[in-house]
Write a structure and sequence with these properties.
alpha/beta; 6-stranded parallel β-sheet; two-stranded antiparallel ribbon; 10 helices; 8 strands; about 10% strand
Length: about 230
């Protein structure tokens, strides 16, 4: 029996629906540049690979000649000032995370969202204390889908990277999370949200898909028996 003690979660699109606030920040910046706003669904598809990549995609879609490097400071100001205005937790997230902690599981967060914005959101929802480790997109020199952030999240939560394949699992919503899990040799649970690029069903790997976060405890209970 392989009990998954270390649960590593993505943030945007997995625990929180943050796309409305991210889109607002993108569109505030585009308005300053004299560009038309992007639709929410378009911005959602750009999320998942870190703020610099998101902004580069948005600027390209708007036909802006300025670069993400040039505009990132302004984007961060807009987002950090309003990162919890319309962001919500997905149903049952708080209750299930608290249940996992009571069961003795160690929770880690592995996100490409910048660390400062991550902390603001977690503190807003009172979730920070539930996580034994928090790895943001700027915590290391590498970000997802590289394996280093995932393994760092596990080890900082008390785990051993050499036993991660049998003791840990990655819970996310997109291809980036699945690729991260595969790079780290860790099984994955994918709960599609419409953020980023969808996980490829043809991918060869240890990959379980759920329709909603509320189904996660039952799936883990089954996996723990294998």
């Amino acid at each position: 029996m392989a009990w998954r003690r270390y649960l590593v979660f993505d943030l945007d699109g997995t625990l929180i629906d943050s796309a409305p606030d991210i889109a607002d920040a993108v569109n505030t910046l585009l308005q300053e540049l004299g560009k038309a706003p992007l639709a929410l669904e378009a911005v959602k598809s750009m999320i998942g690979d870190g703020a610099p990549v998101l902004l580069a995609r948005a600027l390209k879609a708007s036909g802006t000649s300025e670069t993400a490097d040039q505009l990132m400071p302004r984007f961060k100001i807009h987002y950090e000032a309003a990162s919890t205005n319309r962001t919500t937790l997905y149903p049952k997230v708080r209750e299930i995370l608290e249940e996992f902690r009571r069961d003795g599981r160690q929770l880690a967060l592995c996100t490409n969202k910048p660390s400062a914005a991550t902390r603001v959101v977690l503190d807003h929802f009172g979730l920070a204390a539930l996580f034994q480790s928090i790895i943001g997109g700027d915590s290391l020199t590498e970000r997802k889908p590289a394996r280093e952030p995932l393994l760092a999240a596990i080890t900082r939560a008390g785990g051993d990277a050499l036993r991660a394949a049998s003791e840990a699992i990655m819970i996310g919503d997109s291809h980036t999370d699945l690729a991260t899990a595969m790079a780290g040799g860790v099984p994955a649970v994918i709960i599609p949200s419409g953020y980023g690029q969808p996980a490829d069903r043809a991918t060869q790997g240890d990959f379980h898909e759920l329709a909603r976060f509320a189904d996660l405890p039952a799936l883990l209970a089954r996996l723990d028996q294998n």
